[in-house]
């Protein structure tokens, strides 16, 4: 299969991860009913996934710099599929939590490996656009995941979306075996050595910043469906369709990464502009429910800003990491998920106790710290070239 199919194949791989993770934003209430718990407790199905991802990602990232990335990608897709199938027969909420931990392990191997492969294959000056192209796959999963989950859950039951995504992962394995050459990336680093990047401040600052703003933005989105349901008394299918506005914004942001980098003359400036837009959109959605249409506009802007910021930040980190990009990108994903783990339960409890205003305050604190660190990082080093 021609090399031009590599990026679309990688995009398809992350599509099913995005669909599986983000479809839960439309399913918290049905899952709470299925496992005889509350929507706030059902949010731990997301948090347990995030915890295992956060713990395992640095390990898999270290290994991905030293073993065959293609093989690691294929194995993780198979494991992710097995997890989805097993979840449909989970006998209890506790068992479902354990299976979500297993799914987090599979994602911890898959996502950083995908972006490390992109960094291996694509020249540095085109990497932010390439990262955006692959993230279109995850974005498409985020757009369609809640819709698929809402429609299938309402038409059949909560198990149907997991069965569909599991089958999709297995299909992707067959495609990837042909589309991705055995030596698609740079040769792995054979020597097991101490991670030298740990002492480099120019990596620690952007890593911490991205973990804060990205993890907080995703945690907020995972509650957005419940916020809309409470405000407008929506059904599961209507909730899923409504929050796909966020995914539409993500898609537009991913598509606009290259143009934005040219407009703002570099990745660093693009990132800062995107983060200010992200802060405004999150605050607008959570605090100013003027109308249903207005909420959808804020959700779209929220997704657009994140769609610009995430691939731009990933390209910056890959450029700074050099040969150890697998470790650095995996730690970035780990920090993102640690923030989801920290922020989502707190925001969910505040949503139950005081409504969207309380949840907004939790999101605002962590988001503000992340944006401040990103600005401080830009001020301490030379901006990236246009």
Describe the structure.
Its main location: membrane. This is MFS transporter. The protein is mainly alpha-helical and 386 residues long. It has a single domain (3-182, 199-380), classed as Up-down Bundle (Growth Hormone, Chain: A), CATH 1.20.1250. It has helices at residues 6-22, 28-34, 39-42, 44-64, 69-87, 93-121, 127-155, 159-179, 201-232, 236-255, 257-263, 267-287, 292-321, 325-354, 356-380. The longest helix has 32 residues, at 201-232. The radius of gyration is 19 Å and the shape is globular. It starts with 5 loop residues before the first helix and ends in a 6-residue tail after the last helix.
Layout of helices and strands, plus pairs?
Elements (H helix, E strand, L loop, with lengths): L5 H17 L5 H7 L4 H4 L1 H21 L4 H19 L5 H29 L5 H29 L3 H21 L21 H32 L3 H20 L1 H7 L3 H21 L4 H30 L3 H30 L1 H25 L6
Which percent band covers the strand fraction?
under 5%
H/E topology pattern: HHHHHHHHHHHHHHH
Structural class: mainly alpha
CATH architecture title = Up-down Bundle
Keywords: Cell membrane, Membrane, Plasmid, Transmembrane, Transmembrane helix
Domain Major facilitator superfamily (MFS) profile: 6-382
Pfam families: MFS_1
Membrane topology: Multi-pass membrane protein
């Amino acid at each position: 299969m021609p090399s031009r199919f590599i990026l679309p194949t990688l995009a398809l791989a992350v599509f099913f991860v995005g669909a599986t993770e983000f479809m839960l934003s439309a399913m918290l209430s049905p899952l709470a009913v299925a496992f005889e718990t509350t929507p706030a407790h059902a949010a731990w199905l997301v948090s347990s996934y995030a915890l295992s991802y956060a713990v395992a990602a640095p390990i898999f990232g270290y290994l991905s710099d030293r073993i065959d990335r293609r093989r690691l990608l294929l194995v993780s897709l198979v494991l992710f599929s097995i997890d989805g199938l097993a979840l449909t027969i989970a006998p209890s909420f506790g068992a479902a939590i354990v299976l979500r931990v297993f799914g987090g392990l599979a994602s911890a191997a898959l996502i950083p490996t995908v972006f490390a492969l992109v960094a291996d294959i694509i020249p540095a000056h085109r990497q932010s656009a390439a990262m955006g192209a692959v993230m279109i796959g995850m974005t498409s999963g985020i757009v369609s995941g809640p819709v698929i989950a809402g429609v299938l859950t309402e038409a059949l039951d909560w198990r149907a979306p997991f069965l569909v995504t599991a089958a999709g992962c297995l299909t992707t394995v067959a495609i990837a075996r042909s589309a991705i050459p055995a030596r698609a990336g740079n040769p792995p680093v054979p020597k097991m050595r101490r991670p030298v990047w740990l002492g480099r401040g120019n990596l620690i600052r952007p890593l911490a910043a991205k973990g804060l703003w990205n993890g907080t933005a995703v945690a907020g989105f995972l509650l957005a469906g419940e916020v809309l349901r409470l405000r407008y008394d929506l059904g599961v299918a209507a909730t899923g369709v409504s929050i796909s506005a966020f995914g539409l914004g993500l898609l537009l942001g991913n598509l606009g990464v290259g143009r934005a980098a040219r407009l703002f003359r570099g990745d660093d400036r693009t990132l800062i502009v995107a983060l200010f837009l992200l802060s405004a959109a999150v605050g607008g959605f959570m605090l100013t429910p003027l109308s249903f249409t207005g909420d959808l506009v804020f959700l779209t802007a929220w997704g657009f800003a994140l769609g610009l910021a995430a691939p731009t930040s990933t390209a910056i980190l890959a450029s700074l990491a050099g040969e150890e990009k697998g470790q650095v990108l995996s730690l970035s994903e780990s920090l993102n998920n640690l923030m989801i783990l920290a922020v989502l339960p707190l925001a969910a409890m505040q949503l139950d106790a005081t409504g969207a205003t309380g949840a907004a305050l939790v999101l605002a604190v962590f988001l503000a710290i992340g944006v401040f660190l990103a600005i401080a990082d830009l001020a301490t080093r030379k901006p990236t070239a246009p």
